[in-house]
Hints:
The complex is a heterodimer of chains A (359) and B (446). By secondary structure, chain A is mainly alpha-helical.
Amino acid sequence: MDKSHYVMLMYLIMHLGLIFFMYPENIIASTDAVHWIAIVSGLAVQFIFIAIYMKGLNFFPGKDIIAIYGSAGLGVSLVFLVPIVLYFLMINIITVRAYSEIISIVFLANTPLWAIMILLMLVSTYIAAKGVETIFRTGLLLGLLFLPMILLIFLASFQNVDWNYVFPLYENDFTFWTRPTFYQSFFAFAGSFLFLGFVRTHFPYKDNKVYLTVLSLVPFFIFSVYVPVLTFGQNTASTLHFPYVVVIDTLQINWLIFDRITMFFLFTLITFIMLFTSLILWMTSRIVSCCKPSIKQMYYTQGLAVVIYILCLLVPDWKKVETLFTWNAPLRFYCLIAIPLSVYYLGLRSRRKMRHEHA
Amino acid sequence: MDQTLQDLIYKFEDNDDFFLQRDFFADRPVYLLGLKSLIDMARSRTFIHQYLDQAISNNTALSDGALMQMLGEVRGTNLQDISSSVYDGKFIIYFEHVQQYVVAEPVPNLLSRLFDTPTNENVLQGTLSSFVEDIDHNIGIARKQFSSESLRVKSFSVGQNQQKRIALLFAEGHVDMALVEQIIGQFETYIDHDINHIQDLSRTLGLSPWGSIAKFKTTEMPQEAAHSLKTGKVVIFVDRLPFALVLPNLLWDMFCLDNDHNYSLPLMIVLRSLRIVGVLITLIVPALYVALVAVNPEVLRIEIALTVAQSREGVPYPALVEIILILLILELIMEASVRLPRSIGPTITMVGGIILGEATVAAKLVSNLLIIILAATTIANSTVVGFQNSLSIRLFKYLLLLLAAVYGVLGILAGVVIICAYVASLNTFGVPYISITRMKERGNHG
């Protein structure tokens, strides 16, 4: 039974929630012009590793990534799964803390930070505790409800663009590879494709559909950077935090009863982030529950949620959040590079072993 | 008189509607037994006499055995058997010379409502027949509506204190047989549990009674039941409950009426979209009012913000209290209008409407904008198909209201996510609540 549409929608939702916040700022800071080269390079790296990952997973039909590493031995499992757990924990902490801060700054200035964080954590834990099928079905419902609105706002954001800022179209300037902000931009997509390895058993999907979804997100990546650049110009845009949100703030839609639509855009993306957090939480508790399967996974989920919440409370301000970002970078690249390569290698090895057995 | 007959008379001694009468059928002495309240005795006797006269005029000699076979089912002298047949409303004929009991089908007293129009559901230009209390009539109507060879009927008699008849209908070839077998298994395991209402039925089937969304679709209309059978669902009838219980209930059933197919396709699509919009309005609009008035007023355009503020001028308490007060009064009115007799009902609702509409606003207890919003919400609530579904939506809007009062628009969206997650996690016998039509999507949940 082909359930690719669940996986495609989930992939789309997860990434849309992440793209529009910090990615534009990082790319604009990495290079002065011809941003599309930076964007396309980053996306190409991601595409290559997703392809390697899925090809590796195809060697083990019907198995998820924990079973794959488990069959290769305890040492291998520890080397690969422990960094994943740490990476996921850090991502959850950073995401919840950063987005709570954004909400607090932009809209709910009178609500204390811990109250906003507890809302995000409670909703995500509720969804995660119910299991992965619930997460994906919730994704389907939320996608049906909110994606049209996001697309409309995305199209409306082109209201004040001046296409002259597109030029120059090509420069032989590859210095962005040396800037740390370029590597920080990988937050928007590195590691979030790992869920493909966890859900094979519940939601069988076709690889082509995943590639299609990855490609369909490319315009969103490109324009999330270009819309601020085209509206404000490179010099102004580089001074802004969250340039895309500022662009949405400037939109004027006369026939709507609301003054600015920033709030709906932001909060819709926050719902996608709640889903993202719940999926990451579920994956983390899945790995952790393999240590002691006798306790139900739901308790691990709740325990991990409490841990994440407490750690979020300990982060005092935005500077610390950015520090956490930088600390997370090595884990991010480890997960981006090492996990797909190791899965592929294990796949090749198991195929060679099977060939030996047959021969 | 033989022992069993005396035992029977003794058993029914306290029932004054039990009759025992001597008669002669084709010159054989018989005793007629039965419950007067369930059987039209005079007509039954007349029919039997006419029948026998005709039979005798055709054949001159009739043996005892042949006569008894003609009248009904011949039973032994088991006291329990005979007395349960009496309670079932059957007519017992005791042949004195051969000491055998014959259980015959009598002319029953008309104790059930005749076929009627649906009382709780309305259709425009559609079939107007409805299910009634008697289970055999219901099965008959269902067979007439879904006249297919693949329709199967399976009956159970459940309960310890009272024997209630339950019928399970399914269309072989359309339904997933594993689902049917699971349901039959549940009935057979819990055959001793009494079933008087839907909560009992949920318990017997192993479904949790705590779900906020109904697990069964209850419908009075035969075409809905037939449509459900065709799409692979199972229909359950309970004796004396005048509706069909369709299992499993799916999300799409909330917006879909089979009668929509009687209109053209664009109209059908528009009507269904209208229902979806109605549900969204019911859930979101009251919460949006509280959020935009109390927590996030800067979002509105300046003209509307001023209008809203002006409408709330002089209202002494916060928006949340105001809205909960009026919602409480509305809920009380809705509940009261179900209880009131038909003669007084319209008067009370009119008085309530005038009080709400004019007096509270004039007294500056609530803003008039709020009354408009809540009226729109109440109307939108009723566009949903299925009364139980509209009750569920009514319940969910309070969750969104509370979240909106604390967190503003973020609370509304978080509430929508929670409701979506709750709805996505529901499943009946493995069939997830949000599957659209095909029920082959049974998965494992972990």
